[in-house]
Amino acid sequence: MKSTKPAACAHAVFFDLDDTLYDHLLPFRGALQAVLNTGDDFPYEPAYHRMRYYSDHLSALAGGTPTHGPALEEMRTERFVRSLAEFGVTLKQEQAAAVQAAYLDRQFCIRPFERAFELIGKLKSDKALVGLITNGPPEHQWRKIRALELDRLIPPNLIYISGAVGITKPDRKLFDRVAAEAGLAPEQCCYVGDSWRNDVVGAAGAGWRTIWFNHRRAQPESAFRPHEQAFSYADLSRLLLGE
Known about the structure:
By secondary structure, the protein is of the alpha/beta class. The chain has helices at residues 25-36, 44-61, 69-85, 93-106, 116-125, 138-148, 162-165, 172-182, 196-205, 233-241; strands spanning 12-15, 129-134, 159-161, 189-193, 209-213, 228-230. It is built from ten helices and six strands. The chain has a six-stranded parallel sheet, sandwiched between helices. β2 (129-134), α6 (138-148) and β3 form a beta-alpha-beta unit.
């Protein structure tokens, strides 16, 4: 899947946010250490993968990520209960809620992956339209965007948050809407994201070119194949800019 040729997406490149533009594992690790006193030998990355899996799975069962209220809180705590149970950690609901609260608090002390903003700047210099498509409640996602100072690089009209739009990845209608509002055909759009279900399969289903940002070297969740696969921002630069 990996290629050294630039992807055919000269007109628009949209990025996912969580674990694509910044390291989403750090808030997860910090929350578990603070609330559950997990040690350095705990398998944080595999547990994180399972938490993200259950987050996507529960969102799909609900017909999209809830944006507020009890349904959202239940989904957020349940993903910790289910994922950590696979690693021998049994959580009561109040413990899961405490982990979730600590996890959220740490999501606003974040910084972008090295070379992420450099790549965005180069894409814009090459006259590519650069935007963001992310799932989640609007206020929560905007706090992360501002914490990263991403709003200095990407204008608000090119930032699509599922809770504000009313459509959740991987629903192709979200990608259709973004392309239509940009005045572009699907084949002129490229999407970069880490989630197999939401980003890779979702964007490809709408006819977009997809680059799976698989920096954690996860296994595919199905037989579907993305157009390209990248393991680092150096890989992304080669695929998008031919560097």
